[in-house]
Predict the 3D structure of the following.
Amino acid sequence: MTNLSAKRTNMRNPDTQTDNVRLKGRHFPVRLSLINVVMLALLATAQPVAGESQATDHQACLRCHAMATLSYRDPGTGNMINLSVNPQVLSHSVHGELACAECHEGEFDRYPHPENRVRKTRSCVGCHEDRDDAKDRVYAFKTIDAEYAKSIHATSDSADVKGFSCHSCHDPHRFRASKVGEPLADIVRDDNQVCLSCHEKVRDPVSDPHAWLPNREKHWTAVRCLDCHAPLTGNGQRISHQILKAKDSNRDCVNCHSKEPRLLNRLYQYRSKADLANQGWFNKAIFNDAYVVGMSRNPRLDLIGLSVIGLTLLVLVAHGFGRYKAYQRSRGIK
Amino acid sequence: MTSLYLYAGWVRAWHWLNALLFLMLMLSGASMHFAGAGWLLNFAVARPIHNIAGILLTLGWIGFVVGNLTTDNGRHYRVHLRGFLQRLFIQGRYYAWGIFHNAPHPFHPSAEMKLNTLQQLSYLGVMYLLMPLLILSGWGFLFSIYLPETLFGLGSIWVVAMMHLTVAYFLVLFVLVHLYIITTGETLTTNLLAMITGWHREQEAQTHMETPR
């Protein structure tokens, strides 16, 4: 999970749908495109960066890497490898205040970059656990590591997950944690984009394995994939990195809709207020969009209720049969 | 053959409207509650049906209460304490034993009292206890933001939801028993026809009959 030379990095942002950083080049660099030529010209005028304070200075690197089309074709796979880094996205990312050289150590001021540097494995867990604030973090990276080891992304034999790493989902140049106060819909959309960039079948309503789900489209905009496809954990971390197999994922509405009454209360009240504000009193009474599937579901009450109804039906049938027998007897006497 | 006009037009209209709404509410309610099970209504369809039927049921209930306050139909719901337990026992014994031995009906409706004691008790429970709880919890769902955040230390939505569910199960139970009990008149359809025509007709000699008005 700690290999920066990931085969694939698939986190997409809506503004840059085509970004697909592929850093592994077997014969890097092999072919110079026109852009590379331009880049070399730029480099010729660049100041040497070695020895400079690089605390927040990405400029030397971004002179080339900020170009949206910076890429080369991997001769091994024939795939275009995107080497561009969006400076704005980088500056808003969780690593935005780091200098490039804090992760990309070594002689990157030279071009071509030395191949042994480019291929160097970079560890998220190592770096994050070493930092002073490791204990104050919402996510403990050692826990993430342990959870990920049990994840379907780590245990599957499928060729699709070969070379899977942290960076397959979390592009270090654009990843940022969501903050309280951001619109829920934006958080959900950005989170789900990560999954959907690989799991494309889900986008197709015909082949989507979620067809069974009531209000499927609403779930897409209101619930993160992870809410059903990762287990609930009691370790204090908001979400587990142990992505579950489809068959082990949550299919029970009650697990979300009524097991945690406080959550239900808060969400329902929030949506009710929004309904009233947007639709008015009459439409609220008739449509009540806030109501979600399973709100009233309680397995114990359901069991008792349905059992009593079933028993009552049996008693009524037996009672009716007894009356019929009595009727037959009365006719026999007559 | 005796004929008694027991069910006024408004009572019958209310009754059948109520019956229709009950059916719609049970079907749409089950479709919302057990959404995802194949044989039910689509959730998005069930939700407005349930809400509209619930609003009409509320209006119907208010009409029923007002009708009972302003007409003499209300007298049938007044409990006469004298001999109450004895009447209850006699009626219960008839359903548990006498009915299987072709015993005569222990109760004959009259203009003063059309409901036997067991019937009266269950209708009182349904109309003046369960229905208000059902209606209040139903409206509680719709306008929950006007409720306090917690009720009895629990999230108010949860309390409302569980109350609505519990009362709904009781009322489904009531409907089942009610549908069966109406077949226990003098003939299978005596009681059903009475609620359709308003006239309660019996062949049997009635010793406790009051003069029809």
Observations:
- The beta strands of chain A are 71-73, 80-82.
- Residues 299-333 of chain A form the longest helix (35 residues).
- Chain A has four domains: 25-118, 121-251, 253-296, 298-334.
